[in-house]
């Protein structure tokens, strides 16, 4: 659509008295419905940030870069992009979600097209699950019909009622449209701790065998299957007990590996840089040394990942 010119505005002013209040309402709605933000996928930006600002997650970074760029370059994707992030706390799941948003929308994570739902905070289903379901469906529908490239992030999946997640399944699947709304350009991210013990075990096995961590693949020791099994069998893991897995609506299970001392140190340095402080190696090292590590004997992986590694 061509940008509005003064002539257009003049014309609107000229004819406005004819339509009266209804006319202005229509104009107002027209502007409200438009996406407030520019969707412009920045492949180079995404690639660079995943390389420079994410530490120890070669697997997640590669899967995300590939999945998002293939999806964004597809003019006619058969279904929305659905990614599920798994791993312990502080391993960078939310961090990567924000990086995706930053490279999709000019206003990044603060774009009105990014919707961040937190497990039990947004949907305290104790009160009325049916009302929550209807609300969530309406939100997704309303936002996608206004802006097809909307992004929905479900954080702390482990605390979310599976019934609630089940209720949005149709919007994640291969449908041309549902009641006239197409969800095929939307992105859904699920974030949770489920699957972390399988991921940690595989990473520890690699470490014990003296193998290079960066060589861990989705197929290593059946990693992807182990995650989905753990996630599926865990009755507490929110969505996973739902029918999402059976229906294959999740495009990728993305594992976040437990972080080692060297990664925590890099996080601390990056944090200083982000705060515009001069990066000090010694302080970063000390911050990393003060973190707790597991397993108890070997003490290889940071219990809280990079969380809390920020220098005071
Ligand atoms: C879009 O989602 C937000 C929640 O993130 C909700 O408050 C809003 O009402 C939704 N918009 C529409 C048009 O449904």
Automatic annotation (TrEMBL):
It comes from Albula goreensis. Keywords: ATP-binding, Endoplasmic reticulum, Glycoprotein, Membrane, Nucleotide-binding, Signal, Transmembrane, Transmembrane helix. Gene3D superfamilies: P-loop containing nucleotide triphosphate hydrolases. Belongs to the ClpA/ClpB family. Torsin subfamily. One of its GO terms (cellular component) is nuclear envelope. It is found in: Endoplasmic reticulum lumen. The chain crosses the membrane at residues 6-24. Coiled coil: none annotated. GO terms for biological process: nuclear membrane organization; protein localization to nucleus. Residues 259-307 form the Torsin-1A C-terminal domain. It comes from the Eukaryota. This is Torsin-1A C-terminal domain-containing protein.
């Amino acid at each position: 659509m061509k940008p509005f010119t003064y002539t257009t505005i003049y014309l609107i002013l000229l004819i406005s008295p004819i339509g009266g209040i209804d006319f202005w309402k229509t104009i107002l709605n027209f502007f409200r419905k438009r996406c407030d933000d520019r969707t412009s996928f920045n492949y180079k930006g995404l690639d660079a940030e995943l390389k420079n600002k994410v530490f120890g997650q070669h697997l997640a970074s590669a899967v995300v870069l590939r999945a998002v760029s293939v999806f964004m370059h597809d003019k006619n994707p058969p279904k929305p992009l659905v990614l599920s992030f798994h791993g312990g706390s502080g391993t960078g799941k939310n961090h990567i979600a924000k990086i995706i948003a930053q490279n999709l929308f000019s206003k990044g994570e603060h774009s009105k097209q990014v919707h961040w739902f937190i497990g039990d905070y947004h949907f305290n289903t104790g009160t009325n699950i049916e009302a929550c379901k209807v609300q969530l469906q309406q939100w997704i529908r309303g936002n996608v019909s206004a802006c097809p490239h909307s992004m929905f992030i479900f954080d702390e999946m482990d605390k979310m009622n599976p019934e609630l997640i089940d209720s949005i399944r149709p919007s994640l699947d291969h449908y041309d449209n549902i009641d006239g709304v197409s969800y095929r350009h939307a992105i859904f991210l699920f974030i949770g701790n489920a699957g972390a013990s399988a991921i940690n075990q595989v990473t520890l096995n690699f470490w014990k065998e003296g193998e290079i961590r960066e060589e861990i693949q989705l197929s290593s020791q059946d990693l992807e299957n182990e995650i989905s099994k753990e996630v599926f069998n865990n009755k507490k893991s929110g969505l996973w007990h739902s029918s999402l897995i059976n229906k294959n609506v999740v495009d990728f299970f993305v594992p976040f590996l437990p972080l080692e001392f060297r990664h925590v140190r890099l996080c601390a340095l990056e944090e200083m840089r982000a705060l515009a402080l001069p990066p000090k190696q010694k302080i970063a090292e000390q911050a990393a040394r003060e973190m707790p590590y597991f397993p108890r004997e070997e003490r290889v992986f940071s219990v809280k990942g990079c969380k809390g590694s920020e220098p005071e």
